[in-house]
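Structure first, sequence second, as always.
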């Protein structure tokens, strides 16, 4: 019995040592990557969106959307910070909604770096993410799509439109100041 306990303790100690050494390697790789110049097209892509908040207060959202948010946050965080879609300029509007928005808020269409209203834009984005190797979204793609569409309409239009554009402009300005090379890669037409 004592020998069995000793074997278990030894295995646990070895496993702990192995896990900490792997974490140490990952930490060293992460630190080295942080020292490398950022490139928006590198495997570790970096975008203005990544500099914004990585959570949303969904307490006022309908119950279904609060549940969808949890799925979105869990699944999408497996591959990138959820700040990326949360702070994205994407806004899915049908052609009819776009026509109405052009009358009500023409500023919505002035700068696609701030807001990019487009039909099926979140649908394409979620499908593109799902096609990536190892993407954990699976059958939850529709739930994530529904959340992103609902949330972006709520936070980027109507009474929230001005605050959203100011927020997004601040992220882009900060990104340009801190990462000018990545800015030129992400927004190649901005320097012309």
């Amino acid at each position: 019995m004592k020998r069995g306990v000793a074997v278990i303790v030894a295995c646990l100690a070895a496993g702990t040592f192995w896990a900490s050494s792997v974490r140490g390697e990952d930490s060293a790789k992460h630190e080295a990557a942080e020292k490398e110049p950022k490139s928006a097209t590198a495997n570790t892509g970096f975008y203005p969106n990544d500099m914004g908040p990585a959570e949303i207060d969904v307490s006022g959202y309908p119950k279904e959307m609060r549940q969808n948010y949890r799925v979105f946050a869990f699944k999408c965080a497996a591959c990138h910070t959820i700040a990326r879609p949360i702070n994205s300029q994407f806004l899915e509007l049908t052609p009819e909604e776009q026509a109405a928005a052009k009358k009500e808020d023409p500023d919505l269409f002035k700068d696609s770096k701030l807001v990019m209203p487009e039909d099926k834009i979140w649908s394409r984005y979620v499908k593109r993410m799902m096609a990536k190797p190892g993407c954990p979204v699976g059958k939850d793609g529709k739930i994530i799509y529904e959340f992103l569409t609902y949330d972006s309409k709520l936070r980027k239009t109507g009474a929230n439109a001005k605050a959203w554009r100011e927020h997004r402009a601040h992220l882009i300005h900060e990104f340009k100041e801190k990462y000018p090379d990545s800015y030129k890669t992400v927004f190649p037409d901005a320097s012309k």
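Margin note: Strands lie at 90-92, 116-118.
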